[in-house]
Amino acid sequence: MKLKIGDIPKNKEFMLEENDWNILEEPCEDKFIIYGILFGILLAYFSYLLVESFFEIELRNLNIFFDIVFIVVPFHEFLHIICHPNFGLSDKTILGLHLRKLYFYVYYDGVITRNRMILVYLFPFFILSFCFLLILLIYRIDSEFILYIILANIIGSGLDLISALFIFVKVPENSIVRNYGFKTLWKKVSKFE
């Protein structure tokens, strides 16, 4: 695994024009990030309403929420990483921080299957939000702390969820996917090794 500060890297050795790669139609980076945050906030709001219909949990302390964000982000990114080939221990896995735009990212600079890329995007949401929400509801746990974890992760998962949806809807099932900077590329294959 490599660490990087700055923009999401573009592999200089990869030739975009070669090998019939298709560029997935997605919004530009800044718009995509804004859409992701807004979608995450909207989804977090509806999740809070769901929990509130079962419990009388009040979100009393926003300072705790912001502290939890700093705890959730590394776990969220770690959950992306372990879905990469070799559990993220490959030199193609990059953990980055964009200081100017204030976001963390995990990036795989290689080719993976469409379904694995969808898993990479969805896994943190599934573990830290969906599973925690089920535990909260099934076991009737009245915990403001767990609710903050769920909501912080949902907000942080907004872009991941939209990205997974774009790939699910627009990329054919028997395809391989790779990233090139902020762009997602794909091509249909008969078999991937």
Report on the structure:
The chain has 193 residues and is α+β, with helices and mostly antiparallel strands. It has a domain at 47-55 and 65-182. Helix content is 51%, strand content 17%. It is built from four helices and seven strands, in the order ββααβββααββ. The strands form two sheets. The chain has a four-stranded antiparallel β-sheet. Strands 1-3-4 form a three-stranded mixed β-sheet, with helices on one face. Helix 1 packs across helix 4 (144-170) and helix 2 runs antiparallel to helix 3 (114-138). It is elongated. The two termini are 21 Å apart. The chain crosses the membrane at residues 32-51, 63-83, 118-139, 145-169. This is Putative zincin peptidase.
